[in-house]
Amino acid sequence: MSFSREIKEELSTQKSGARHCRIAEMAAIVRMCPEAVQNSYCLKIQTENLFVARKYFTLLKKTFNIEVELSIRQNKGHKKSRVYTVYAKNSEDLSCILRPDGLATQRTCCKRAFLRGAFLVCGSISDPNKFYHLEFTCTDRQRAEQIQTMLKAFALDARIILRKKYFVVYLKEGDQIVDALNVMEAHKALMDLENIRIFKDMRNTVNRKVNCEAANIHKTVSAAVKQIEDIRYIRDSIGFGNLSEPLRQMAEVRLAHPDATLKELGTLLRPQVGKSGVNHRLRKLSETAKELRVDKEEKHYD
C-alpha cells in the first residue's frame, strides 16, 4: 500500500467530533470532488476512491440522520475499477454544506476538517523514502487558492503551479509536510514519516562521514605518493649526500615507510619531531625536487 493510501485510510476512519467540523469536511469532499452533483433536489458524489465514499457516507448519516444511498458499479473502462455513488436528497439541513466559501470554515478546527476532506479527494504524497512532496490536485484555480489559504492559516508555505489542465497546491519541505499531517490529524502517518526522516538523517550523516574519511584517505595517499616521487627524483638526480642531514634522514625514512602517517614518521626520526616538523621537511624536499626539474628543463632547451 502506498503512503498516500495509508494516510487516506487513516483519515477515512477518523471520527470527527463536532457537528460543524463534520459539515466542513463534507463541504471539502463535495467541493473538491469533480463528479459531485449539487442542486435543489439532491447532493451526490461519484468516486473511484473507496475511502472518500466511505467517509462521505458516514458523515452524512452521522450528521443529518437521513437516508443515504450507496451504489457500486464496475467501471467498463480500461482500468475496470469500481465506481461508488453516494446520494442523499437535499433538504434544508443539507444546504449548510453548500454555503458560500468561508462560512463553513471559520473555526480553526473546521479548517483542519476541511483539509482532511480535501486530501481524501484530491491529495497525495510521495514515497518519503525517496523524496518529500505533498500536493492537492484541483480542477480550477479557485479551489486551489481555497486550499492554499487553509494551509497558510497554519503557517504552511503552500505554492500553486499549473500542471497540464490542473492547478496543484504543493509542499516540498519535510518539516512542512509533517506539520500538514499534524494539521489534518493523521497522527499515525506523521509518526511513520518522522521515523523515516530520522532513519534518512542518520544514513545521510553516516554517508557524509564515510565520504569525508574516504576523501581524507585519498588526499593522504596522494600526498604520500607525490612525496615519494619527489624523493626518488632527488635520489636519482643528485643523491641524498647533497642534502642537509635533517632532509637526508627525512628522505630515507619516508622511502622506507611509504604508508606511515606524519606522526609515525616523526617518531622514526632522530631526534623525534612533531607533525609540523615532518610536514616542513617534506615540503622542503618537494621544493628541492621542483627546482631540480626546472634546472633540467632549462638545460634541455639550452
Notable characteristics:
single chain, 302 residues, Endonuclease I-creI, 57% helix
Quick summary:
Helix content is 57%, strand content 14%.
Averaged pLDDT: 87
Principal-axes shape call: rod-shaped
Strand residue percentage: 5-15%
**What is the domain tally?**
2
What's the structural blueprint in terms of helices and strands?
Elements: H1 3-12, H2 19-32, E1 36-38, E2 42-47, H3 50-64, E3 69-74, E4 82-89, H4 108-122, E5 123-125, E6 134-138, H5 141-152, E7 159-163, E8 166-171, H6 174-183, H7 187-237, H8 245-256, H9 262-268, H10 275-301
Antiparallel strand pairs: 1-2, 2-4, 3-4, 5-6, 6-8, 7-8
Helix pairs in contact: 1-3, 2-3, 2-4, 6-7, 7-10, 8-10, 9-10
Describe the structure.
This protein is of the alpha+beta class. It has two domains: 3-185, Endonuclease I-creI; 212-301, no CATH class. The chain is 57% helix and 14% strand. It contains ten helices and eight strands. The chain has helices at residues 3-12, 19-32, 50-64, 108-122, 141-152, 174-183, 187-237, 245-256, 262-268, 275-301; strands at residues 36-38, 42-47, 69-74, 82-89, 123-125, 134-138, 159-163, 166-171. The strands form two sheets. Strands 1-2-4-3 form a four-stranded antiparallel β-sheet, covered by helices on one side. The chain has a four-stranded antiparallel β-sheet with strand order 5-6-8-7. A hairpin with a 3-residue loop joins strand 1 (36-38) and strand 2. The radius of gyration is 35 Å and the shape is rod-shaped. 32% of the residues are buried. The mean pLDDT is 87.
